[in-house]
Amino acid sequence: xxxxxxxxxxxxxxxxxxxxxxxxxxxxxxxxxxxxxxxxxxxxxxxxxxxxxxxxxxxxxxxxxxxxxxxxxxxxxxxxxxxxxxxxxxxxxxxxxxxxxxxxxxxxxxxxxxxxxxxxxxxxxxxxxxxxxxxxxxxxxxxxxxxxxxxxxxxxxxxxxxxxxxxxxxxxxxxxxxxxxxxxxxxxxxxxxxxxxxxxxxxxxxxxxxxxxxxxxxxxxxxxxxxxxxxxxxxxxxxxxxxxxxxxxxxxxxxxxxxxxxxxxxxxxxxxxxxxxxxxxxxxxxxxxxxxxxxxxxxxxxxxxxxxxxxxxxxxxxxxxxxxxxxxxxxxxxxxxxxxxxxxxxxxxxxxxxxxxxxxxxxxxx
Length: 366
Ligand SMILES: Cc1ncc(C[n+]2csc(CCOP(=O)(O)OP(=O)(O)O)c2C)c(N)n1
Ligand SMILES: [Mg+2]
What we know:
Blueprint: H1 40-65, H2 79-87, E1 94-96, H3 102-107, H4 112-120, H5 143-158, E2 164-169, H6 176-187, E3 192-198, E4 201-202, E5 205-206, H7 220-223, E6 226-231, H8 235-250, E7 256-261, H9 280-287, H10 291-301, H11 307-328, H12 349-365
Helix pairs in contact: 1-2, 1-10, 1-11, 2-8, 4-11, 5-6
């Protein structure tokens, strides 16, 4: 069983900046810095996105339990890290998600129907999210970090000031691909931001069995890039950490490694049972640090959130959940042959050969 380390204690690690926190679990401002650029409506939009994300997340799990989806990885507890970082970006900056970034999709207004069909496997090749400047989700751990750097290097060559963002997990930090991505981003000073959601677990392996370093952020110094550790359950700290990194990237200051310390409240996926390897006290501890509760308290105290706002946000969550449900429930299976449509941009003789083989195979089953 892992032990829970209080977040602020980790700031004492030699050579590391204090972990960035703006509000504590009671919603009180703790640090000197505050994202003053956020308007009242932007604050409300972030809280609404977090509430909608949680409602959608619950609906995804329900749909899996009802046999409508094979699998879903819940992001419950990680809404602040996702909504805070994504909200600081322009809509033209490119996202390279792992598989748990529902909150980022909500901020980008990717329709719940599309996300639902993606998880149902009803769209071979996934949803085309190019218009939303979002790459497909990456189930292979860490491979997409290299894509994010490639995108960022391309933007740099084009003289374009957009940034590439790789969302990765603590477990992905143990992959060779991510090491290569961090190194090449530093070598080429690429405008790339690595957002590591340290949710303390990689399936059943706790962070302290994945690495000897005390933090993930401290590894940045070995690549000669800036590393920041922020309270990932604090949406405002996540926003500020990202805003600093974006400014650095756009002004030619190179990549940043952000470690957003958060917690995966649910099991790894709906196929997993975390109660077999996780101490219930740990889960209880983190439930008291809930990101939605703390931001709600903060905005109420600042008179930026009213009971009407709460009702509207919950209604938006219900509507999103219903749209998701309607699209996924009993959705028709796609024609298996469409599997070949999105592999390459043009057809190839080899793909055609495989397609004919499959067509023949399918005809036997009829
Ligand atoms: C290359 C590769 N190796 C192993 C796996 C199996 N796998 C799926 S999720 C996962 C853990 C990833 O943990 P982390 O990066 O912390 O993300 P989290 O699930 O916690 O969000 C592993 C090892 C995989 N999908 N891809
Ligand atoms: Mg993890």
